[in-house]
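COURSE: Structural Biology Practicum
ASSIGNMENT: Worksheet 4, Part C
STUDENT ID: 0417
INSTRUCTIONS: Below are two proteins. For each, the amino acid sequence is given first, followed by its structure token string. Answer the questions at the end about the second protein only.

PROTEIN I
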Amino acid sequence: MSQADTIMSNPKLLSELVQLTSDAGDVILKIYHSDNFNVQNKLDESPVTAADLAAHHYIMAGLKRLTPSIPVVSEEDANSLSVAHNNTCYWLIDPLDGTKEFINKNGEFTVNLALIEANKPSFGLVGVPVANHVYWGGNRLGAFRQLQNQLEDASYIQCVKTQIPIRVLASKSHLNDATKQLIDQLGSSTLIQAGSSLKFIRIAEGLADYYPRLAPTCEWDTAAAQAVLEGAGGSVKQASGQSMVYGKADILNPHFIAMGLS
């Protein structure tokens, strides 16, 4: 039995992981509403805030308590990257995905926890702090959405067949010329812009159809939401058509296409 199966078959553990994701969102919101973000730039010039770091420490402590045998890779701990190269099963987390959206205060940021097994995301949790929603699921496990803080209130979510005009998602921060050209080639389409891993979630909920990403992302940006989308019947493939691979020597993803039911 995979670790993902173990989690889904253990209601108490699943509930605690969902609660951890929700509570990490509350940690972020306290700083979000304080206006004291303490914004700094990492070596790659990407921003990091006090909320990124606070959520990182909260999630790390929670996962150590709930799943002590599973190591963790976090965006906010560069030293943890080696974990992925030495383990076939590990957590991959982005404590605050959409830091630019957080700084701009548009609410479109998420908390991402993904379980990686054999170089694939087998299970993922995505929290949306501003909406107080948590999504979770994985390939062959289904996909679910909790609107409040009770696991029994969870509802099943599923992709829908592609609509015409096709509803295309694009990043608010990274809508480049290559992406615009690809969207033009699709024919009749409606453009929907969203931040962070919410783009995957919109497809999983049946609210969008297609998300081409022809700009840089890292593995922690996509893994959790990919698992949820696959659980909802969708797919995430490299632009070449090959499967996404996690735990690579280079943490950057190739260009990819996420979509619902064809």
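PROTEIN II
(use this one for the questions)
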Amino acid sequence: MELGVKTDVTPDLSLSAAIFQIKRQNEYVDASSTYVMAGKQINRGIEFAAQGRVTRDWMLGGSFTALQAKAQDTDDARIEGKQVGNVPRYKSAVYSEYSWPGLPALKLNATWLYSSSKAFAPNNEIAGLNRKVDGYHVLNLGGRYIAKIGDTATTFRFGVDNVFNKFYWGDASSAFGGYLIPGAPRVFRVSAQIDF
């Protein structure tokens, strides 16, 4: 279920907001290390977003999500009513694109991503200790240049993901004794798109 609203406040500014609830089968590894499906995972959240032009050449946007994901009707006191593992309570993104004055074919962009800490396991414990996976901030920078080679439109893209080479845990799971998946390190990207 979702209820949302979106409006163009001015030709250069758009705002949106939504509240939502998602129910799905709850899947986890129980105390006997058995994979089970029991009860429901109830995700309730609210999301805000804004996008607009600061100047003719500079576009700025952002989004923020607050999410409560809890296990219900599981008949398992270890996880009943607790935050589901691997789901952050807060996520946000800020993105920007800048058209270089005098060179409109060149556009530079930046994206900042944030994720709050999250529970490692459905019962919020590892070996009996309360544990959370730390939140993280990641900055990505890039650009694109649109050119014409003969009569063919070509877009060149370049970028650096995770500019500061920040180490972070992207995903966590309590399955198979528990494991963490690291986020991608600094990555350089170059590509070309040719439109025939």
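ANSWER KEY EXCERPT:
Q1: The longest strand covers residues 35-53.
Q2: Residues 170 and 183 are 4 Å apart (CA to CA).
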